[in-house]
Every structure is written in structure tokens, then in C-alpha cells.
Amino acid sequence: MRLSELQRKNIINLVDGAFVGRIIDVVISDDGKITDLVLEKGKSKLLFGIESNEVLIKFEQIKKLGSDVILIENIDN
Asked: Of 26, 22, 25, which Cα lies nearest the Cα of 41?
């Protein structure tokens, strides 16, 4: 699967069914494996009042990779 195909899928939280965001990038380890998905999201407050519009999702959090959506769980945002 290509990154462009992943970027077309909505990311949905299995816990509450909420839309989490869309993939804008991935983090790849030194051995070439995807470790994190970088999602674009509405602005959220981080530590010390810094705002960010990106969320990192660990690849292990993916529970189902469907044709239209990616289902994840254990998101703390």
C-alpha cells in the first residue's frame, strides 16, 4: 500500500467512534518500518499552552485497516 492510499482514509477512534484526523506523514525507523502516523487535526493544547495541529499515533494502535477508514484505539487526545 502506498502512502497516498493511506492519506485518503479517515482515522476513527474505536473507543468513542470519533473522527481523529487524516494522515499527513509517517515516521520511519532506521530499519525501514513505519513506527508512527502523523495526523493533521484541529488545534489542540499541549504542555505549557503550546498549540499543535499534529497528532502522533503509534503504528501498534491500528486495529483495522479498512478500505475507507483506519480504526485505532487507546488515543489519549
From this structure: 22
